[in-house]
Task: structure prediction
Amino acid sequence: MNKRRILIIEDDDFQYEIYEDALDAHDLTRADSGSEALAAISQNAPDLIILDHILARGDLGLDCLPEFKELLPHVPIIIVSGALEVHQQIHALQGPRRAHYCITKPVDVVELAKTVEIALEECGATEVVRQFEALERSKRIDAEALFSRSTDRLARQTEIRRLVREAKDRPNVSALAREFRVARRTIIRDLRELIRRGELKPEVFPKWESDDDERSI
Result:
């Protein structure tokens, strides 16, 4: 199995040693500033980024986050920092150019390793595929629902047409609504459609009466 490439953006040597021990199953690359990280990304895109907030040369991780997401929109990013306020963490996890996880220092290596594995398996490209699949399922469900409603409407209109043609009097909207268990306005729309398609004569439901009935609903 190929090792996954992880870019660790961290300027503290001791902290990086912790990452080396906790994530030795992966191929790690280190950058100590935002500019160095951008150069590394352009040469070899990682599968995941671990990002500290306070970096070398005065760089701030959260300031670099939008650039990383612009270049690598589907690569999961884990922010690891002890310098962020709660509102900064929330901000980093929101919006289109967000990080996926935020872990505070001192780092719990078990939590870190677990979060990395989840991010590699569930986020990034896998997450995008799931979103597309969910969208396709939603479209199919909508299409099935629309088809079902259309079929029900046509079947109801066919039966209404038969009942109206066989009746001696003009149709009773309330009675039809009770029989088909729909609203009165639904029956009115059915009658109008049948008349518009020429399947019923206009006099079975005069326009002035249909307008009065719809206002009384």
Notes: The first strand starts at residue 5 and ends at 9. The chain has two domains: 5-123, 145-215.
